[in-house]
Specification:
Elements: H1 2-7, H2 17-40, H3 48-60, E1 67-71, E2 74-78, H4 80-83, H5 87-94, E3 104-106, H6 116-124, H7 138-148, H8 151-163, H9 170-179, H10 183-192, H11 195-203, H12 213-228, H13 236-248, H14 267-270, H15 282-291, H16 296-315, H17 326-332, E4 334-340, E5 346-348, E6 358-364, E7 367-373, E8 388-400, E9 406-420, E10 424-429, E11 439-446
Parallel strand pairs: 1-3
Antiparallel strand pairs: 1-2, 4-11, 5-6, 6-7, 7-10, 8-9, 8-11
Helix pairs in contact: 6-7, 7-8, 8-10, 9-10, 10-12, 12-13
C-alpha cells in the first residue's frame, strides 16, 4: 500500500466559486505589485543620438553660431556658451577685453606644434563627451589643449601618452611632457626605458650630455630607482631625494649595490659612465662614495689611471694628444654640454680637475671660441704654464622641435687644437639663417695623451672606464 500510495493521487475536494474568485484577485494583485516594482526601478539608457546630434549640428554644421574663430587660415563657426568651457575663452569673454563683445576673433598661434587638425579636435571636444586621440597626433593635440586650457583634454592626452609608450615614442613624449608640464608622463617615460635601450643610449657616441658626466650618473640613478620601485608615485622634484634615501639606507655586504643580485642586471648600463670625469670633481666624488652604487673595483681602477695621468702631465710635461683615434676618442672623451636659451653673449667653463688646462668657451656674434685661460686663476699653480698645450675635441650643435626631432645641426668634426697661454681660437662660425634657439652645444674633450696600457694580467680594468683622461 505504501508503494501504491506513492503512485496514486487522492481526489481533490471541489473548490467553490468564491474561492476561485479570491485566488484570481490575489494573483492580479501580485502581478500589479511586480509591475509597479519594475516601473519604479530606474533604467539607464544613453541617448546616443543627443551627443551625436550636438556635435554634427552645432559643431560640424555650425548652426546658430554666435561667434567665428579664425586660426591658421581656417574658420570655425562656434558658440560662446560651449567655448566658455575653455579657460582661455572664459577669461576672454568675462573680462574687459575687446574680444568680449566681438563675434569674429582671429587667434594667434605661437606654438609650432599646433595645426588646424589639432584645433579641430580641441574645439570639437567642447561639443562631445569622448575624443579619440591617435598616438601619432597626441603631441599636437596636447599643445592645442594647453593653449586653450582644456583640462579634461590635457588629462586624456596624458593618459594616451602613458598607454602608448614605446621605444619609438619615448623621447618625443618625454620632451612634450616636459614642455607642457605633465610630470606624471615624464616619470612614466623614464621608468619605461628598459635596460637594453638605456645601455644603447648611454653608450652612443651621439648622446648629448647636459651639463657634465655626473648628470649621466644622476639620471641613471633615478631611472634605476623607478625600475626597482615601480609603485613610487611622487613628484619629479622629489625623485632624486627619494632615490638617494632608498639606496643609502642599505648596507651591502658585497661592497656596492651593483654587486648585489638585485643590482647586477644594471651593471651593463652603469659601466658606460665615464667615471674619470665624475671623480674629477670633489662634490661628485663624495656623492659616488656615499651612494655605494658603483663597484669598488671600478672606482679603484679609475682613481689609479687618473693619478698616473696627472703625474704624466706634471712631471713628463705631457702636452696633450697629437692625433685622434676616433674609436678611442668616442669611448673615453669627456662629455659635456650647454643649452643656450636665446641669442646673446655667453661665456662658461665646465667644472672639475682638467690637468692644468682651464678651457673657456664663448658664444658671441654667431662664433664659438675656445680660450686657454692662464691669467685669471683663484690660486697660483692652478694651471699648466707650458708654452703650448694640445686639446682634442669634437663640437656639435643642434636645435630640436617640441617632439624631440632635430631641426638644425652643425658639427666641427674631430679636431686637435694647440693653444698658447691665454690664446683664443674660433672653432665654429655659424650661419645665422640656420640658427634656431634654444641651441644645444655638446662637446667632447681629451686633455691628455693616452697613457701606456696595462700589460695582460697586470690589473683588471673596466674597458669602458679606462685608458684616457
Amino acid at each position: 500500500w505504501g508503494s501504491l500510495g506513492s503512485r496514486l493521487s487522492l481526489p481533490r475536494a471541489p473548490v467553490c466559486e468564491c474561492e476561485r474568485r479570491k485566488r484570481k484577485r490575489e494573483q492580479e494583485c501580485e502581478c500589479s505589485e511586480s509591475e509597479a516594482e519594475e516601473l519604479s526601478v530606474p533604467r539607464r539608457k544613453k541617448l546616443k543620438s543627443t551627443s551625436k546630434y550636438i556635435y554634427q549640428t552645432l559643431f560640424l554644421a555650425g548652426e546658430n553660431s554666435d561667434i567665428t574663430i579664425c586660426a591658421l587660415g581656417q574658420e570655425w563657426n562656434l558658440h560662446k556658451i560651449y567655448l566658455c568651457q575653455s579657460g582661455y575663452f572664459s577669461s576672454m569673454f568675462s573680462g574687459s577685453w575687446k574680444e568680449s563683445n566681438m563675434n569674429y576673433i582671429e587667434l594667434e598661434i605661437p606654438d609650432q606644434n599646433i595645426d588646424t587638425e589639432a584645433l579641430q579636435v580641441a574645439f570639437g571636444s567642447l561639443y562631445r563627451d569622448d575624443v579619440l586621440i591617435q598616438p601619432s597626433r597626441v603631441v599636437t593635440i596636447l599643445a592645442a589643449a594647453c593653449m586653450l586650457q582644456l583640462d579634461g583634454l590635457i588629462l586624456q592626452c596624458g593618459e594616451t601618452m602613458k598607454e602608448t609608450i614605446s621605444s619609438k615614442t619615448v623621447c618625443g613624449f618625454y620632451t612634450a611632457a616636459g614642455t607642457y608640464g605633465l610630470d606624471s608622463v615624464k616619470q612614466n617615460h623614464i621608468a619605461f626605458i628598459h635596460i637594453g635601450l638605456m645601455e644603447k643610449l648611454i653608450s652612443s657616441p651621439d648622446l648629448f650630455v647636459m651639463q657634465v658626466e655626473m648628470d649621466v650618473y644622476t639620471a641613471l640613478k633615478k631611472w634605476m630607482f623607478l625600475q626597482l620601485v615601480p609603485s613610487w608615485n611622487g613628484s619629479l622634484k622629489q625623485l632624486l631625494t627619494d632615490a638617494d634615501a632608498w639606496f643609502t639606507k642599505y648596507t651591502y655586504s658585497c661592497g656596492s649595490f651593483l654587486d648585489t643580485e638585485q643590482g647586477q642586471p644594471y651593471a651593463t648600463v652603469f659601466k658606460h659612465i665615464r667615471l674619470q670625469y665624475v671623480i674629477n670633481d670633489l662634490t661628485s666624488a663624495k656623492i659616488i662614495e656615499r651612494d655605494r652604487i658603483i663597484c669598488s673595483d671600478w672606482l679603484c681602477s679609475v682613481y689609479k689611471q687618473q693619478w698616473f695621468a696627472m703625474l704624466r702631465t706634471e712631471q713628463d710635461n705631457d702636452l696633450g694628444p697629437k692625433e685622434i683615434n676616433k674609436e678611442d676618442f668616442e669611448m673615453h672623451s669627456m662629455r659635456c654640454g650647454r643649452k643656450l636659451g636665446k641669442d646673446g653673449d655667453y661665456c662658461w667653463r665646465w667644472t672639475g680637475f682638467s690637468f692644468g688646462f682651464d678651457l673657456l668657451v664663448t658664444y658671441t656674434n654667431r662664433f664659438i671660441i675656445f680660450k686657454r685661460n692662464t691669467l685669471s686663476q683663484p690660486c697660483n699653480g692652478a694651471v699648466s704654464l707650458l708654452p703650448h698645450r694640445n686639446i682634442a675635441y669634437r663640437l656639435r650643435l643642434a636645435s630640436f622641435d617640441s617632439n624631440g626631432k632635430v631641426v638644425c645641426s652643425r658639427t666641427a668634426g674631430y679636431q686637435v687644437l694647440s693653444l698658447e697661454k691665454d690664446q683664443e681660437q674660433i672653432v665654429l662660425n655659424l650661419d645665422s639663417r640656420l640658427l634656431i634657439f634654444p641651441l644645444y652645444i655638446c662637446c667632447n674633450f681629451l686633455y691628455t695623451s693616452p697613457g701606456a696600457k696595462p700589460e695582460s694580467g697586470d690589473e683588471t680594468v673596466n674597458p669602458e672606464n679606462s685608458g684616457l683622461a
